[in-house]
Amino acid sequence: MCSHSKPWWNNNLTTAFKDMRAARDMARSYYQHFNHQSKLMTSEAHHLRKMALHMVKMAKHEYYLKLTEGANMQNMWNFRKWTTGN
Length: 86
Prior knowledge:
Elements (H helix, E strand, L loop, with lengths): L10 H24 L4 H31 L6 H9 L2
Helix pairs in contact: 1-2
């Protein structure tokens, strides 16, 4: 990880997004080869996308909850910067 990495990202998210992209690519490949969509493949890709985005939401929630639990008088105003984008 570098200084620009998302601190809440974890290996489970990497795996979930890899699976999501693989399912999406398979659905697209099926469409290109047979000239119609596979409902099973597209629904699986959609389901994996929803799960991956939910996992991102939960990872962010857990990370920021852990950070705010450790707030004190010195670093309290740093949290306000997140909401303003500064």
